[in-house]
Amino acid sequence: MARRRRLKTSELEHFIHMSKHKYKTQRKALKGLFREDSFRIEPNVKMADRSIFKYWKNRMSLFSQMQCKDLYMTRELWYSVTPETVAKFAARFIKSCLPEAQVILDVYCGGGGNTIQLAQYFPKVYGVDNSLEHLYCTYRNAQAYNVEDRIWLKYGDWPTLSRKRRFEKLKIDCVFSSPPWGGPQYLKSQVYDLEAALLPQGLRETLEGFLRVSANVVLFLPRNSDLGQIAQVTRELLGDKAYCKVL
Ligand SMILES: C[S@@+](CC[C@H](N)C(=O)[O-])C[C@H]1O[C@@H](n2cnc3c(N)ncnc32)[C@H](O)[C@@H]1O
């Protein structure tokens, strides 16, 4: 049953710029999502959508709190969210490389799989996504993990925000990103072409934009990614002595 409730002012503050007049339509939509308690998972109600069923079966690996807390997922998020152990590993890896880091930017934050784990280790995490529904899910999922006060969400198209040089003055210590891989069919080819298949920008443009925000960049990419492309782009953008670690 939907648990109707209003979006509180203190919650709206975590959606950057959303109280501005320019975002009137999005604000209204966001209020509607909170009011209707949209996208809440009933963990014990079997997923009717056959194409999502295999992800639903493994729901506890996506969010370990699924059984005891309210979690929120759109259809797309079922196959997009980074599983919790993987997200935790990435967050701990960044913490071990940058123990003094304070501010992390998660570009393409989706349903918050990574944002939430990053917020367990760092005091301030920005999340960016062009889906208002996904930003809403990130916030609600962060509430389940009690880290909602550490996250700040920006609605928008990343290439546009990047072109407008947003985030460049925010003293971001590290950019993390799990960009869209083009859906589950990414495994169909033996080698994943990071220039042609990665969305919404190829590897070079993605890295160029991120490196303008921070010298530390962590990407979550398909396991069949073309490592030669990573080596080449890293050298071209950062010089022959550039250091790039693949885990
Ligand atoms: C692979 S999912 C990220 C999953 C996320 N790391 C998580 O664990 O929940 C990619 C996200 O990128 C968002 N996205 C796609 N194109 C975008 C764009 N042009 N600008 C901003 N976000 C975009 C999608 O809405 C989706 O939520």
UniProtKB/TrEMBL annotation:
What SUPFAM superfamilies has UniProt attached to this entry?
S-adenosyl-L-methionine-dependent methyltransferases
InterPro entries in the record, alphabetically?
A: RNA_cap_Gua-N2-MeTrfase, SAM-dependent_MTases_sf
Gene3D superfamilies cross-referenced by the UniProt entry:
Vaccinia Virus protein VP39 (3.40.50.150)
Pfam families recorded for this chain?
Methyltransf_15
Q: Which reaction does it catalyse?
A: a 5'-end (N(2),N(7)-dimethyl 5'-triphosphoguanosine)-ribonucleoside in snRNA + S-adenosyl-L-methionine = a 5'-end (N(2),N(2),N(7)-trimethyl 5'-triphosphoguanosine)-ribonucleoside in snRNA + S-adenosyl-L-homocysteine + H(+); a 5'-end (N(7)-methyl 5'-triphosphoguanosine)-ribonucleoside in snoRNA + S-adenosyl-L-methionine = a 5'-end (N(2),N(7)-dimethyl 5'-triphosphoguanosine)-ribonucleoside in snoRNA + S-adenosyl-L-homocysteine + H(+); a 5'-end (N(7)-methyl 5'-triphosphoguanosine)-ribonucleoside in snRNA + S-adenosyl-L-methionine = a 5'-end (N(2),N(7)-dimethyl 5'-triphosphoguanosine)-ribonucleoside in snRNA + S-adenosyl-L-homocysteine + H(+); a 5'-end (N(2),N(7)-dimethyl 5'-triphosphoguanosine)-ribonucleoside in snoRNA + S-adenosyl-L-methionine = a 5'-end (N(2),N(2),N(7)-trimethyl 5'-triphosphoguanosine)-ribonucleoside in snoRNA + S-adenosyl-L-homocysteine + H(+)
Q: From what superkingdom does this record's organism come?
A: Eukaryota
As one GO molecular function, the record gives: RNA cap trimethylguanosine synthase activity
Q: Which GO terms describe its cellular component?
A: nucleus
Q: Which family does it belong to?
A: Belongs to the methyltransferase superfamily. Trimethylguanosine synthase family.
Q: What is this protein called?
A: Trimethylguanosine synthase
Q: Give the source species.
A: Lachancea nothofagi CBS 11611
